[in-house]
Amino acid sequence: MKTLLASLKGSGMVCAYFYRFATKEKPKYLALLTMNVILLSVLPFLGILIPKSMIEELMGEQKIPRLCLLVGLLVGGTFLLKTLISILQEIRETWEDALSRRIDLEMSKKAMRIKFEHTESESALSARQKAETGMSWYSGGIKGMSECIVKLGTSFCVIFGVIWIVVAISPVLLLLSVTAVLVNAICTSKINLAAQEVFEKTPAINKFYSYIYTKINGREYAKELRLYHASPLVEKKAVENAKSLNQMDNECARKQFSWGILGSTMSAVGYGISYGWLGILALKGTITVAEFVTCITAMETLTNGCLIPFITNAQQLMMKCNFMSAFIAYEALEEEKDQGTEKLGAEGFDGITLEHVSFRYPGTEQWVLRDVSFEIKKGESISLVGLNGSGKSTLVKLICRLYDVTEGAIIIGGKNIKEYSYEEYVKLLSVVFQDFKLFGYSIEENVRMGGIQGEEGRKLEDVYELSGVSEWISSLEKKGQTIIGKEFDMEGVEPSGGQAQKLAIARAIYRNAPVVILDEPTAALDPVAEYEIYERFHDLIKNKTAIYISHRLSSCKFCDKIVVIGDHTVQEVGNHEELMARNGIYADLFQTQAKLYVAG
Ligand code: ADP
């Protein structure tokens, strides 16, 4: 009983959530559903009450005008009601399609807003998968939910009218019908339980399914698949995945079939007894022919048209709500914007101070950074140097607030950066990540998307020139309007690694933010292009505060300060000359690299 109450309460909350959502988009949606329920509730009474009057008339006075009126009422009323119902359902369908697209959009918006660390966490990925599955054919989304609610509402309204008719003729019949319906309800609940069990197990299997059929089949893996002859392995995994899914489906179908058969057998037995009982009453003359026919129709309406749909739809609704609650859980995941409220304009930026920063990735035990402290003054350019895996990119992610520091603090404008509103905070940053991504939109849209609203960005042409893509863009037929990639436009371009990297740099400098962060910005460039970038380095960063990571230590000479990271913490700080004179880690790394270049 307790679980049933909890389940009812949970379902109520889920319905309230989705109807709030629906009425925000379509304010008259609930009125439409109510109208639908009213019309559907009136319809069965035409078919029960008018034929009763017709039989009484036929067996009594047989007045033709009265009979014609009754036929007219039955035919005309049914036609009118059905037409209105179809119109309402047509409107509902289009509104519900729009609502379902809106739900997809919400899910995609959420995926773009959740805290960055959730994008890598297993539980958040499963939550997304579960939300998608929960809103798919499992529940039918808002459309599926409304379908249940309309049927539930209709059965509820009709039940009272029909019970009144049946009880007036034979109370025993009501008892028989209710017993048959209860048995049926138990069977249906077992059928739903089997579906629920499958739903709980599917997200993990479905995740593999979409990995194989969407991701691996896509462009991302095309090269590895061919060159490493990886398709037999992928095929093997696909067959194993299909086997698990088939096994689960079969198990579910077996259970549902057994309970379904039991349910229909019990219904048939219930019917047999009820018809037999009514027949005896009619033969004994306890009820008239008109009452016999009315009672048969009313009983049919009560069991198949009301009680069974009522219970089935109540159970279905609870199950759908359970599926759909996965969407609500996903929507509740913490977002970047949930953190910090303080405002910080470009003018409030006074440099960055790291105070005893320690960090380990969520869910791991290993410290990546330990007690890191240094300062980046406003307008200063610093270079982060260290071996692979020493934590340079991690430091950048912390400054970008993609992760929160585990211990210590990063201070800007006298406050912990966590205190600033995330949306405001990121306006401080122009970043080119090592694994930057360009979007399948036009070149111009890609570069402009970094522009900070309301602020005068740099001129697009200057940015193209500075980042070295001007000539290439001019050579394209559609210039800056050329789409990147051929996925959506056959005339799109596939930029080379170097062109793509220069575009990523263009996007960062167009943004014109006070802090420029370049993580391995020249990794994909040839030596000439790399030299050009270094030559224009100061024009590129335009005296802004800059954080620079590069494996080529010769590029550090351009920076005011070099911070050497090793053994999870800061090992040396100084400019090129100071660190060379110190003859420590930096000097060692620099000389080793210089020798390699000379040898090369
Ligand atoms: P660098 O930029 O100096 O090459 P990184 O900051 O990329 O180094 O990595 C530092 C350490 O953090 C490495 O040991 C790396 O394996 C680990 N690491 C990086 N990203 C993650 C992550 N998302 N989860 C767990 N560990 C990570």
Radius of gyration: 35 Å
Largest sheet: 6 strands, mixed
- Tell me the CATH topology of the largest domain: ABC transporter transmembrane region fold
Give me the CATH architecture of the largest domain, please.
Answer: Up-down Bundle
Which structural category do the helix and sheet elements fall into? alpha/beta
N-to-C series of helices and strands = HHHHHHHHHHEEEHEEHEHHHHEHHEEEHH
Ends apart, CA distance between termini: 79 Å
Q: CATH first level of the largest domain: which class?
A: Mainly Alpha
The chain-level mean pLDDT equals 87
Give the fraction of residues assigned to helices. 55-70%
Number of strands: 10
Strand-residue proportion: 5-15%
Q: What strand order characterises the main sheet?
A: 6-7-8-3-9-10
At the fourth level of CATH, the homologous superfamily of the largest domain is: ABC transporter type 1, transmembrane domain
Number of helices: 20
Ligands bound to this protein structure: adenosine-5'-diphosphate
Walk me through what this model shows.
By secondary structure, the chain is α/β, with parallel strands linked by helices. It folds into 2 domains: 2-331, Up-down Bundle (ABC transporter transmembrane region fold); 346-599, P-loop containing nucleotide triphosphate hydrolases (Rossmann fold, 3-Layer(aba) Sandwich). Helix content is 64%, strand content 9%. The chain has a 6-stranded mixed β-sheet with strand order 6-7-8-3-9-10. A hairpin with a 2-residue loop joins strand 9 and strand 10 (569-574). Helix 2 runs antiparallel to helix 3 and helix 6 runs antiparallel to helix 7. It is elongated and about 120 Å long. The model has no long low-confidence stretch (mean pLDDT 87). Adenosine-5'-diphosphate binds next to helix 11.
